[in-house]
Design brief:
The complex is a heterodimer. Chain A is mainly alpha-helical. In chain A, 72% of the residues lie in helices and 3% in strands. The mean pLDDT of chain A is 83. Chain B has 13 helices and 2 strands, in the order ααββααααααααααα. Classes of the chains: A mainly alpha, B mainly alpha.
């Protein structure tokens, strides 16, 4: 399978995962969205050398993946796929910040390595939590939550439409590139001229499709508003979910549990 | 060019969220005022088009590397700046959610870097002024090239500023700028060429698409209005930054130290005093012993206080143990009570 087909195949996977039916799936999207945003803000609020203090936060993505019955390997693979940018900016830290700040026995670790580790841990935490959120909730429910929070309607409607047509146009683009690949000879890579032709015709098809969609919507009584059959509401579970995780994040942020644990353990050993 | 959550501080992310949120609200209002229902599906499908077109890689001549379409410019040309910005913002949101391409907290930064500069600066101030409603191929190419380059240069510069203000990366300003700007000059030229090519193709095949888009788009965003908006956004960002920066001492001060040699700008007032005391209290947190180390003067002989080896070892052991505990908790959750009724097939 070429990377294009793999990518567009991927679009369906997240929706399929979101169709699951665990207690976490049934939770109102607003609660999950709020806690995940809180999680991300807390994680990135640590100072740049924090490593051990970030460890307890692993609990949240692990909880989402385990309790939501998500495939952990798949989420991790997706996170790895996008890591190059974080790595490329962080990789200079060990070169630029060489002050030794940590000793493990005779072995000294420079600040740069420590901050790079911190960046990579933050990256893994925030990305896996965000991916788990979408895999548990689905874009439609997230849009619904955004609408209830008062995000301007044109934007949330746009998100719904985009999500709906993503796989359609991705499939069309996939067929066009495959057709080109089958008819091309040894020159495997697409040149800029061919790309413009393919993208241009894809655009023309997209505009035509939009016109057909619009007429079909008019036939069904479209008046500029999209109505969602909302069925979730904020209940006791949601309040508990938000307060419990909020309290845990506060605890993790204000105390360095791993260091305390380590002290306890070394004292016991001694 | 998608920024990740791991590289920005909450202050920068929050400020950029506020700015981009304002831009979305304003654009949504403008789109609603146009009251053109036809645009609703058109925006959705064009957003999906950008997505699909970004998945197709093409080779860039003479470099051997491959590029893809950014899309802000072509969206503005087809939909006008407001609907174009909304569409691009939605594409970035879906990318952040589905592909983790650019984080959720960094979403505001990404909307500003890739959406604002192309849709609200490069398109109305450069592209529309040069291309107008002209059908001349050379004019269209010049307009698209200049606008593409300008949009990407501004966006790349914003990435540098946001990263520096967050203080997570060690890259000094000069190095980072010298890395980012030339790369994005090349990307901007490619983007401009592709945009011009697609615009010309559409103009030849279906001129009415561009004609209606031109009519519906407001006659062009005025320079004064744009500058005012941008000024207000910058003021908001600066305000939010300075507020958070005091409460969270590392980010901004650190980058100030790196770029200007001074750790803090002089400031007074009660708010600052209050935040100072908060800062002093939070400094007692057992985050290794780095707080002391960071405020120490870099040049002094005894710069780095003796590192407490006990703390370091405790941190390492405790950290590993915490990971193990979290892993066990996950296993227990999965094996134990949580019954899944899901009917999907695992990939």
């Amino acid at each position: 399978m070429n990377s294009f087909a793999a990518n567009s195949f991927d679009l369906g996977t997240m929706d399929a995962l979101a169709a699951g039916n665990t207690p976490l799936h049934r939770l109102d999207a607003r609660a999950k969205l709020l806690v995940t945003l809180l999680f991300i803000v807390t994680v990135v609020s640590f100072e740049k050398y924090s490593v051990s203090a970030l460890m307890p936060f692993v609990l949240y993505p692990v909880f989402l993946i385990a309790a939501g019955d998500l495939p952990a390997g798949y989420i991790l693979k997706k996170a790895l796929w996008v890591s190059p940018f974080a790595l490329s900016v962080g990789i200079f830290n060990p070169l630029l910040d060489r002050q030794i700040v940590l000793h493990l026995g005779e072995f000294g670790i420079s600040g740069g390595w420590l901050s790079l580790t911190s960046i990579l841990i933050r990256f893994a935490l925030t990305v896996s939590a965000a991916l788990a959120l979408v895999a548990l909730t689905g874009v439609n429910a997230i849009c619904e939550a955004l609408m209830k929070w008062g995000v301007p309607r044109p934007f949330s409607v746009q998100l719904l439409f985009l999500n709906r047509f993503l796989s359609v146009l991705a499939g069309e683009a996939g067929r066009m590139t495959r057709a080109r690949a089958l008819r091309g000879f040894r020159k495997r890579k697409m040149g800029i001229g061919t790309f413009v032709q393919i993208a241009g015709h894809l655009l023309l098809r997209a505009v035509d499709r939009a016109e057909r969609v619009y007429r079909a919507m008019l036939c069904r009584g479209f008046d500029g508003r999209i109505r969602l059959a909302g069925h979730s509401h904020i209940g006791g579970r949601e309040v508990f979910f938000v307060t419990a995780w909020g309290a845990l994040f506060a605890l993790f942020r204000l105390t360095n549990l791993p260091v305390e644990l380590g002290y306890l353990l070394t004292r016991i050993i001694e | 060019m998608h920024m990740a959550d791991a590289l920005i501080s909450p202050a920068v992310g929050g400020a950029m969220w506020a700015v981009s949120g304002g831009l979305i609200a304003y654009s949504a209002k403008k789109v609603r005022e146009e009251a053109d229902d036809r645009k609703v599906p058109l925006m959705g499908v064009l957003g999906a088009f950008i997505f699909a077109a970004q998945m197709i890689n093409f080779s860039i001549p003479a470099t051997g590397s491959s590029g893809h379409l950014g899309g802000g410019m072509i969206l503005s040309i087809l939909l006008g700046p407001y609907a174009g910005f909304l569409t691009l913002a939605s594409v970035l949101t879906i990318q952040a959610l589905f592909f983790a391409d650019g984080g959720l907290l960094a979403l505001g930064c990404n909307m500003l870097n890739m959406g604002f500069f192309t849709c609200f600066i490069a398109y109305p101030l450069i592209h529309r002024r040069i291309a107008g409603n002209s059908t001349d191929g050379k004019r269209i190419m010049t307009a698209a090239l200049l606008a593409g380059v300008a949009g990407l240069q501004l966006g790349a510069f914003a990435v540098v500023i946001e990263t520096l203000a967050s203080g997570i990366s060690e890259l000094p300003f000069r190095t980072f700028v010298l890395l980012m700007q030339p790369i994005h000059l090349a990307i901007g030229l490619v983007e401009g060429t592709v945009t011009a090519g697609i615009a010309t193709l559409v103009m030849n095949a279906r001129p009415e698409i561009l004609a209606t888009a031109g009519q519906e788009a407001p006659a062009g965003v005025s320079v004064k209005k744009t500058l005012l908006t941008f000024g207000a956004a910058a003021a908001l960002a600066a305000g939010a930054l300075s507020w958070f920066a005091s409460a969270d001492p590392d980010g901004l001060e650190w980058s100030m130290l790196k770029t200007s040699g001074k750790e803090e700008l002089e400031s007074g007032g009660r708010l600052h005093g209050l935040l100072d005391s908060v800062q002093k209290r939070t400094a007692f947190l057992p985050d290794y012993n780095f707080r002391k180390a960071e405020t120490a003067e870099p040049g002094a002989g005894q710069a780095w206080p003796a590192v407490d080896k006990g703390t370091s070892a405790a941190g390492l052991i405790g950290g590993l143990l915490t990971l193990l505990l979290a892993w066990i908790a996950g296993l227990a959750l999965r094996r134990g009570g949580v019954k899944s009724l899901s009917r999907y097939n695992r990939p």
